[in-house]
Amino acid sequence: MYLQLKRLDKKFGHLYAVHNFSIDIEEGELVALLGPSGCGKTTTLRMVGGFLKPDNGHIILEGDDITALPPEKRPTATVFQSYALFPHMTVLENVIYGLKFRKIPREKACTMGMEMLEKVGLPLSGSKTIGQLSGGEQQRVALARALVTRPKVLLLDEPLSNLDAKLRVRMRREICQIQSSLGITTLYVTHDQEEALALSHRIVVMEKGQIIQIGPPQDIYRRAENSFVADFIGRSNIITLKGGEKVAIHPEDLSFSYEKGILSGYISGRQFKGAITTYFVDVSGQTIEVDILSREDRQRSDGEKVEISFNKGSEMPLTRD
Fold it and tell me: N or C: which end of the chain has fewer CB atoms below 10 A?
């Protein structure tokens, strides 16, 4: 196995920030650490990068234990949320900054820097200042600076959080393309569910310092193991069926029926969201969300009684609630 995190623990005071965290990661894999604020995902990333020392556990890279190595001795590179670029340096000087500590001659370092700027789509920006760049361009410079050192593991800590919504979507595609073309093993921290689903080969869902579920994006979305994962990944209705079985079902997997449905309720509101319209239905005191294609919506009224049907096979039994 390429990268192994074995039973990592980290306490702050008497509380665990990360507890018993273990995962094996393949070479070239992009794994997203996903969870709410304070769940331990950034603490985990910082332990892998050497910025925090685990209280227990081991970090194994290509068979070597790197747990005790300081950040500058590790074959890892980190892109922080703030980018941490130097405003008094040119773009190229920022990119090659870390190479001087590796005793690489400046001429060779400049060549490496320009090659990396081309890979991230900024081939003509080497002489610009950081202040001349957009937010997305600054993000790519930070990525180039991390990648130019040719790390074995790339660590990304909420790298798109400072960008606007449309730019985040574009940068997701670019990060995917760069990561795939270089084949670099990547740990990606995010609290954005859509980002994790779009980018990663596997997702690690965390809560209170522990792993709740690991799997490919499709499995995490379609086969959540408990109500926390179902509720955190996208939007899910948690419904108790006759007989007591608890299931999660996404709003897009529900529809209104003209015949007797699985659930009956009354419209309590609706929100137009462009391609879809979300209806809120009161079912015995519980609010159920139903997504309808807006072009097919007949604009039901508040208080109207409706029958709700499930799309076949769409419900997810919650096995660990």
Answer: N
